[in-house]
């Protein structure tokens, strides 16, 4: 069992102690330094399995994910405010320090989506879009240039800031809308979307995440695509992990674990054709994963994906 003796875990725990003692998680020299160290510690490919950590470390991991989520929200809000002060905010997106990561992640997600979705989606929902909805903006600007995007967030101020970013753009202002509501209160409208993206920080703990996924499985259109963000190895100290068994009502199509600076893993699933299958034939979620979780054709120069790591994942769930 991995516990305090593991050097990586020790380092993460040291950083957790420092981060949790900060007076504020708003962007500052100390906050930026500590989170940069944390990401650098967790980014390299690691065989660590967070489910095998002792309870003390499991508790620290849960708290650390919460702190990372809060810090990320404050960072996005900070830069969204700055961008919103420009006449054409979308011309200055590169001032956000992780903009290049979003370009790579969106390219990866678009490639995966194209592989499993023969038609260009007409309507896409992004759940947990936040004050700086870069995934929606990048996908709408460069990849899905005729698709309408419906962004959902519970925070009215986040939506207000996000709207400010696209309102001056004649194209995106027409194709992008923002809904201030809890996704658990959205029912029939979910049936309208060809693709639903679920942000990594929607459902910060296992039960909440599974609750959202179950809700989507109940109301999404049969055959619609669900794109989720997960984490793998030591990166699971930064973001919640979505396991294939969590996706009740969905067929898992592929799981991708980038090994570069793109932190999030990407999971793509398709809702089963009928609700009967969901409730009767698949009470515990899909039991069979595709033979190939990674297709070599999906490789893109932007994404340095480790093939051996993917094959290991395939064996783990087969």
Automatic annotation (TrEMBL):
<dbReference type="Pfam" id="PF03059">
    <property type="entry name" value="NAS"/>
</dbReference>
<comment type="function">
    <text>Synthesizes nicotianamine, a polyamine which serves as a sensor for the physiological iron status within the plant, and/or might be involved in the transport of iron.</text>
</comment>
<dbReference type="InterPro" id="IPR029063">
    <property type="entry name" value="SAM-dependent_MTases_sf"/>
</dbReference>
<keyword id="KW-0808">Transferase</keyword>
<dbReference type="InterPro" id="IPR004298">
    <property type="entry name" value="Nicotian_synth"/>
</dbReference>
<comment type="similarity">
    <text>Belongs to the nicotianamine synthase (NAS)-like family.</text>
</comment>
<keyword id="KW-0949">S-adenosyl-L-methionine</keyword>
<dbReference type="GO" id="GO:0030410">
    <property type="term" value="F:nicotianamine synthase activity"/>
</dbReference>
<protein>
    <recommendedName>
        <fullName>Nicotianamine synthase</fullName>
        <ecNumber>2.5.1.43</ecNumber>
    </recommendedName>
</protein>
<dbReference type="GO" id="GO:0030418">
    <property type="term" value="P:nicotianamine biosynthetic process"/>
</dbReference>
